[in-house]
Amino acid sequence: MTQRCLIVIDLLNDFLDHWDRPTVEALISHTNRLASAFRERQFPVIWVRQEFRPDLSDAFLEMRDRQVRICIEGTRGAQLHPDLDCRAGDGVIVKKRYSAFFRTGLDDLLLQSNVGEITICGINTHACVRMAAIDAYQRDLRVVLAKECIDSYDNAHAEMSLAYMDGKIARLAPVAEILAGLPEVNDLPCPLSAKGLTRTSSA
User: How confident is the model at residue 1, as a pLDDT?
Assistant: First the structure.
């Protein structure tokens, strides 16, 4: 049986505060539903968030060049939205670039848990979601994009990104289909371990 993992990317206050409430509520509701189902089956749930120093010394070039201060460590903006069902046993990754794999502990978490397939939720489809999907594919991981759990402020580029990814490096699937494809709890080995999963951040 393939060990699976749910990865949720950048559902942070600094971003979602500027989105309309129905969109945010839908993203959070569907994501929490998946998180609950994955946990019930002892599949890892990992929350990814970006965070930067106040002086932007660890931020990417565009932020430094334009002095864009978002997701600053120690601020509410860098935290996960409070309605997300993030629990103490979940993994947490702090990233400094678009990809959740770049200089973080994500590789180790997935290897330790023997993950062969990841399901991605989060924003933005054309940037951080796409980069994580590509990097996962390059590691020979199967990638599922949860249709109702990903979104972007840039619809045009999001649509192009999905057209590029779907059926090639990833599979775009509705939440109902993802849930239906999960093994029944009673059919799982007892217990199915998510060994090695700890709350982890980048250096």
Answer: 65
pTM given for the model: 0.91
pLDDT at 173: 98
Side-chain half-sphere CA neighbours of 187 within 13 A: 5
* DSSP class of 93: E
Q: What is the CA radius of gyration of the chain?
A: 16
Who has greater pLDDT, 188 or 72? 72
Distance between CA atoms of residues 2 and 20, nearest Å: 37
The residue extents of the domains of the chain are 3-187
- Phi and psi at 26, nearest 5°, equal -65, -45
Q: How confident is the model at residue 185 (pLDDT cuts 50, 70, 90)?
A: confident
Tokens encoding 48: 């990814």
130: left (phi over 0), alpha (psi -120 to 50) or beta: alpha
Q: What is the CATH number of domain 3-187?
A: 3.40.50.850
Q: β-strand 171-173 against 45-50: which pairing, if any?
A: unpaired
Q: What are phi and psi of 171, to 5 degrees?
A: -125, 120
Q: Which two tokens stand for residue 89?
A: 């046993």
